[in-house]
Task: structure prediction
Amino acid sequence: MAATFSYLAEKRRLASIETLLRLSRLPRREPKTFEGFDFSRIQGRDAAALGKLPSLADLYAHRNVAFVGPGGIGKTHLAQAYGRECCMRGLKTYYIKATELRDRFQKAVQRGNTSRVVSSLVKPSCLIVDEVGRCVYDRPCTDLFFDVVDRALREGGAERDGPHEQHRPERVG
Result:
C-alpha cells in the first residue's frame, strides 16, 4: 500500500513539474541545465558566485540576480537553467525576452489594462527577463517594468506557490 501511495505521489509531483515547465515558457527543445553549463570557463570572483546558482540561494535570500557580460558567455543558458531549477523545485517561473515584455507593455498601455498585465507578471516566484541589453524601453514601459519589480518584492510570489517555500520572488535577468 505504501508503495502505491509513493508511486502516486511521485507521478503527481512529475505532472506538476511538467505543468510548471510548460507554463514557464522556458524553451522545451534542448533544455538548459546547470549540468550542461561549463563552469570551468568562468574565472575569478564570479566563478564562486556562479557555482552557487543551482542552490537558488539568491532566490531564497530575496536577492535579484543579473547576468551581465559580452555575448556568447552563457548568460541565457544560466538564466534558463535557473528557471528550470525553480520549476523542478515546484516554484512558478516565467521566462520572457525583453522585446516581448516591451511589446506586451506597449499593448497594455494602448488598451488601458496595465494593471492586469503587471499583476500577471508578479505572480511567479521567478521572473526571467532575457536580453535586456538588446531592448530599448520608452518611459511608460520603463515605469511598468519597475512597477513589476517593486510589486513583486512587496507582494511575494513564492508564498502563493505553496507553504513549503517562504521567500519573495527573485528576478533573474
Summary: Strands lie at 93-97, 126-130, 170-172. The longest helix spans residues 2-24.
